[in-house]
Amino acid sequence: MPTVYITAPPEAADDIAKQLVDARLAACVNQFETTSTYRWEGDVHHDEEVILLAKTTGDASDDLVARVQELHPYDVPCIERFDECDVLESFAAWRADSVE
């Protein structure tokens, strides 16, 4: 079962997280404030962002990524999928029940 790592501006993060859970594309989305330093269009930027960790299923992950791309204000959002090697069985069952 994958976890999808997303970064978003603070003003968009809550909406993205809520819509993913409401649409049952994620069982849970954790949010962490962070500062990102990156190069964009030749300039170095230093911005406040929110890391979103969306717990989803393999079947729903493509739809989750597509939905994030629709909602996200960036032209090129950071969306990375991490597949788990080991997860608590009861957590995996809850997540699978929470995602359609």
Automatic annotation (TrEMBL):
- UniProt-listed GO biological process terms: response to metal ion
Q: Would you say which domain of life the source belongs to?
A: Archaea
Gene3D superfamilies of this UniProt entry? 3.30.70.120
| InterPro entries registered for this protein in UniProt | Ion_tolerance_CutA, N-reg_PII-like_a/b, N-reg_PII/ATP_PRibTrfase_C
**Molecular function terms, GO-annotated:** copper ion binding
List, alphabetically, the Pfam families matched.
CutA1
Q: Which UniProt keywords apply?
A: Cytoplasm
Q: Which PANTHER family match?
A: DIVALENT CATION TOLERANCE CUTA-RELATED, FI09726P
Indicate the family of this protein: Belongs to the CutA family.
Q: What name does this protein carry?
A: Divalent cation tolerance protein
